[in-house]
């Protein structure tokens, strides 16, 4: 039988232990300083996300009353001139702050004006 012996590729060099140790108060100071630095940078960057002082132009809309048997898909398909019914449904949901596509008879919906 043969014996195989491997020599280590490197040898660990013992490091001298650092004599600097942070106390609980020191760790807290480092943490709070880092936190304030990150919050300060975030606050500075968020300043660029400010709107203008001028009012925007609202999109022209009209009011439609929901008849019995009407669905949001049906109303949106009548209004969508480009054939994109899903985006029109999303627009109607956004304009009326609807949480779902369910409608009730007699409900009044604000819909975009159809421009031919």
UniProtKB/TrEMBL annotation:
Q: Which Pfam families match?
A: LysM
Keyword Membrane tagged: yes
What residue intervals traverse the membrane? 28-50
| Gene3D superfamilies hit by this protein | LysM domain (3.10.350.10)
What CDD domains does the annotation carry? LysM (cd00118)
Keywords assigned:
Membrane, Transmembrane, Transmembrane helix
| SUPFAM superfamilies for the chain | LysM domain
The keyword Membrane is assigned to this record: yes
Task: Please report the stretch or stretches of sequence annotated as the LysM domain.
Answer: 62-111
What is the designated name of this protein?
LysM peptidoglycan-binding domain-containing protein
Q: What is the lineage of its organism?
A: Bacteria, Bacillati, Actinomycetota, Actinomycetes, Propionibacteriales
